[in-house]
Design brief:
This protein has about 170 residues and is α+β, with helices and mostly antiparallel strands. It is built from six helices and six strands. About 40% of the residues lie in helices and about 30% in strands. It has a six-stranded mixed sheet.
Length: about 170
């Protein structure tokens, strides 16, 4: 899976060289607003337990959560999250406090990064890739991570190692 992610990064880098980063950051303000509205509504769907959340993810889309086991294609993610989306109860609440939006020159491929405030995970960071289709936008890749301050990274790493060692010992 690491190879797949690396290949995707290299593909994006090959298609959109660093020299074009300045042009990409100057994305059309109308497109930026559309993307912000789309991603905000996606987060709102989760906050209200609406199944429309999954409709905004491409059929071939990938969602990567915070746990190392959380790498899903859309339908597997939907199956895993079924219990969170019952009876339109809140699944999870993410509120973007900052988002940067970039786009290919023709606007058909969009990528973004965002800082999030969440109710259960605290401060998070995420990045995503959106494809523009005839039907509208669809998320093809989203990766969520918990924002860990550098000054406590060693402590967190120690906790993760201990948890993984404990899980390995329990098998």
């Amino acid at each position: 899976m690491k190879s797949f992610f690396l290949a995707c990064c290299l593909l994006v880098a090959a298609i959109f060289p660093v020299a074009d980063a300045a042009a990409a950051s100057q994305a059309d303000p109308r497109l930026v607003k559309q993307v912000n509205d789309f991603v905000d509504s996606w987060h709102d769907d989760a906050a209200h337990g609406r199944q429309a959340y999954f409709d905004k993810i491409a059929a071939d889309g990938v969602y990567i959560g915070t746990d190392r086991s959380e790498l899903w294609k859309r339908d597997a993610f939907k199956e895993w999250a079924k219990g969170y989306f019952q009876d339109n109860k809140p699944a999870w609440t993410f509120r973007a406090t900052r988002r940067n939006v970039y786009a290919s020159p023709d606007g058909s491929l969009i990528w973004f990064d965002e800082l999030l405030d969440t109710e259960n995970l605290g401060h998070c960071m995420a990045s995503g890739v959106i494809r523009k289709t005839a039907k509208g936008f669809e998320i093809v890749h989203y990766q969520l991570s918990i924002a860990v301050p550098n000054q406590i990274a060693n402590q967190v790493t120690g906790l993760v190692k201990a948890a993984e060692a404990g899980a390995a010992g329990a098998k």
